[in-house]
Amino acid sequence: MATDIFLLNISGQDKPGLTSGLTSVLAEYDAKILDIGQANIHDTLSLGMMFEIKSGKKSAAVLKDLLFKAYELGITAKFTPISLEDYEHWVSLQGKDRYIITILGEKLAAQQISEVTKIISDKGLNIDSIKRLTGRTSLVREQEYPRASIQLSIRGKLNDKSEFTTRFMDISKELDVDIAFQEDTMFRRNRRLVCFDMDSTLIQTEVIDELAERADVGNEVKAITESAMQGEIDFNESFRKRMKLLKGLSESVLQEVAENLPITKGARRLIDTLHYYGYKTAILSGGFTYFGHYLQEKLDIDFVYANQLEIIDGRLTGGYIGDIVDGNKKAEYLKLLANNMGIDIGQTIAVGDGANDLQMLNLAGLGIAFHAKPKVKDNAQNSISSIGLDGVLYLLGYHDRHIDLMK
Questions:
Q1: Helix ranges (DSSP H) in 46-197
Q2: Which of 55, 68, 87, 170 is deepest in the core (most CB within 10 A)?
Q3: Collapsing DSSP states into helix, strand and coil, what is residue 279?
Q4: Whole-prediction pTM value?
């Protein structure tokens, strides 16, 4: 039986009953819907339907009735005939690799989106859909915490992913925007565990520097900390050097520092949302368990792995108990937690800012360098530098309306 294929494009003011009215006409002629999609921007509808119908009188009649229905509804209808060859070619593309690109910033400008989509075009990839993840922005009221994000779903064969992501990194630096690139796999849709570095990630300070200030060795410790975070000296060596400088500090200082830890913007929103949707969370830190456990209680974190201070007679000895939690240990704990939960490593997320986080960032299914040092950003899978820690939610594909369900 000969059939015709048409693409119906509808545009106009959105109102109830549009899709129902159009599909009821198609139903009268036993049309088969091959594809359908709809977008709505500022109450303006864009609806597309591809349908197959028996050639001949039915084919001509359905077009006429659809035009009449569109006139009744006050919308514009356009028909495009599709050849069987073109349709089959379109079908053959569905097996191509799929990727997700997330663009993040305080505000998004046309230039940023233009540069990203130009790279996609240069690589011969198709954009299947574009979705805004953040809420609508008022042009009158000033936002207390401005943020904007869109997600692009793309499809095609990508031979050199590293060159692709390098170009995104260049745009990110030039135009002050974050661009995350992920393969759209089963694991991406089923993440279960999120692991955070603590210092300069969950909190906006380095705790060891805070302790050093109170021990009057702030400058010495800060210099060692910065050198370690930049990857200039071995983390374990730097840790031992800094610990010795804290010898004799009173245990009472620890509580004072803990009670004044500056929580990173967006951290509570992120963790509350993760728990609402069933994720487990962990702190994997080169800092100290004392502060990790304080944050665990404050933010409802599930697991904490960090260094344990040695305290005798109410004072720090300058030593520690157990193994040093360095980059290797963080990666080991990430694997341990995944194994204990019975999940694939691809279902994990790691977030951190320092050189000692790189191993876990690159081991996790999704690694995110958060407001990180240049060396870390250059070597991590993805980075967030333009907004707060809740930017992680947009990389997971959540829309603000999913997050606001908890309110």
A1: 57-73, 84-92, 110-122, 161-175
A2: 87
A3: coil
A4: 0.87
Residues catalogued as catalytic: 197, 199
Q: In one letter, which amino acid is 215?
A: A
Element (H, E) at 219: helix 218-229
Sheet holding 303-312, edge to edge: 315-321, 303-312, 280-288, 193-196, 348-352, 366-370, 382-384
Contacts of 400 (CB under 8 A, 6+ apart): 133, 134, 135
Q: What is the pLDDT of residue 405?
A: 65
- One-letter amino acid of 263: I
Residue 295 CA to chain centroid, in angstroms? 23
pLDDT tens by residue, 22-80:
999 999 999 999 999 988 888 888 999 999 999 988 888 999 999 999 999 999 999 99
- Cβ proximity of 179 and 173 under 8 Å: no
Question: DSSP characters for 235-277?
Answer: HHHHHHHHHHHTTT-BTHHHHHHHHT--BPTTHHHHHHHHHHT
> From the CB of residue 369, how many other CB atoms can be counted at a distance below 10 Å?
27
The answer to whether 320 and 329 have CB atoms below 8 angstroms apart is no
Three-state DSSP at 224 gives helix
Q: Which residue has the tokens 């009215």?
A: 21
The closest of 388, 405, 397, 407 to 105, measured between CA atoms, is 388
Helices 289-299 and 252-259 sit at what angle, rounded to 10 degrees?
Answer: 40
> Which residues does residue 183 pair with via DSSP β-bridges, in sequence order?
99
Those residues whose C-beta lies under 8 Å from the C-beta of residue 273, and which sit 6 or more positions away, are: 390, 393, 398, 402, 403, 406
Residues of the chain short of pLDDT 70, as ranges, are 95, 229, 405-407
Helices 207-214 and 252-259: angle between axes, nearest 10 degrees:
130
Which strands make up the sheet holding 32-41, listed edge to edge?
32-41, 44-54, 3-13, 76-82
Distance CA 169, CA 378 (A): 8
Contact 250, 271 (CB under 8 A): no
Q: Are 120 and 154 in contact (CB under 8 A)?
A: yes
